[in-house]
Design brief:
homodimer; 196 residues; mainly alpha; Tetracycline Repressor, domain 2; 0% strand; elongated; DNA-binding; DNA-binding (chains A, B); transcription regulation (chains A, B); HTH_TetR (chains A, B); TetR family transcriptional regulator (chains A, B)
Chain lengths: 196, 196
DNA sequence: CCTATCTTGAACTGATCGTTCCAAGATGTG
DNA sequence: CACATCTTGGAACGATCAGTTCAAGATAGG
């Protein structure tokens, strides 16, 4: 209980997460992490344990933070699945449009990097993507969609959500991103039995 | 005209392309490229000029090779847009299912890496993604779809195609990938005026 | 055969990689 | 104050990074 930390651990995690998010795991060096967090190597290693351990913390942080937002958006899926899916995509569109945050998506980037990640890091990235699919599957199964349609549509929606990361990095405008999800939302509206 | 090359340039390009495709630009070292191509540094540098120059060659090679397949698939868009879009996605699904090739997609991976790529390499990655969008836009505008719907759907289809790269790396099964494109194809079939 | 030209292998450059280590400073307890 | 514990700055580690250099080997034109 002596020698108190001279920095805010949460703020450091946010800075590290943002860096991984923007540059990816491979293109982020420990020096980069020290620079963006303001820590030196000793503090970074003693607090977080190394690059991969810190990356895992950041991945979990990212998955938890936005997972909660996605869950909140989908909470009305049973009563109004169309509004729920619309709100789901809006979480991503808002995040991409936020100038204080990177575009892209840490989970999408990590998923594509799986072949060059450590086994445990790769497993966690896969889990994060799986959580997203599970979230959508549960929400849509609670709607009046037939089970098979619900599962298919959940896979589709999860994929379209990841595609926004790629397209935003590729220079797609907010209007173009809206068009991408618009087709998906339209498809759901036609698939819902309430649609006459 | 003296001292003939001891290797096949096309084979070396294929090997390098496959490596970049699987591991991405940042996680691929020149040593890796030497190993997979069988070349030593001298031959690699004198023939291709360096890592970034070789990466550009591989990006162009990838974009051309699969661009032609996408164009062929979309060639019947005016007469049968539904079959054209189906064939378009089938190009990607077949490529992912091919055990001799990596899953994922070099263009998607490069697009996500744009923030850490050299300016000219980033521009080329963006161009490759733009070519894909242009391809789909032209094909769908030739169909009986209203112009605005054609543009929106083109953006959507390009995005869904990129999403397959992310989802395949994340462990999605071929059936799940088919479900993803199935929703999109179904949406197009409902949007076409021929649909009764 | 001779020589100019090209290719190839391997050693080498300085920079950067992730990680470890240690001494100096700061803090809480006795 | 004294001592044990923790944090911090910075140097240092061997490994690997992208890229260069050079001499030896191979080939074509004369």
């Amino acid at each position: 209980m002596a020698g108190r930390k001279q920095f805010d651990v949460d703020a450091a995690l946010d800075a590290a997460m943002t860096r991984f998010w923007r540059a990816g795991h491979a293109a982020t060096s420990v020096d980069d992490l020290c620079r963006v967090t303001g820590l030196n190597r000793s503090s970074l290693y003693s607090t977080f344990g190394g690059k991969d351990a810190l990356f895992l913390r950041c991945l979990d942080r990212y998955a938890t933070r936005y997972g909660e937002k996605y869950d909140a958006a989908l909470s009305c899926a049973a009563s109004d699945p169309l509004a729920a899916v619309r709100a789901f995509f809006q979480v991503t569109l808002d995040r991409i449009a936020d100038p204080a945050l990177p575009d892209g998506c840490l989970i999408a980037q990590s998923a594509l990097a799986i072949p060059v990640l450590t086994e445990d890091v790769a497993a966690r990235a896969k889990d994060a993507l799986g959580a997203q699919r599970k979230r959508l599957r549960a929400a849509l199964k609670a709607s009046r969609l037939a089970d098979q349609h619900a599962e298919d549509f959940a896979e589709h929606a999860a994929a379209v959500n990841q595609s926004l990361a790629v397209m935003s990095r590729g220079g797609a405008s907010p209007a173009q991103l809206r068009a991408i999800v618009g087709v998906t939302v339209e498809a759901l509206s036609h698939a819902l039995p309430t649609h006459t």
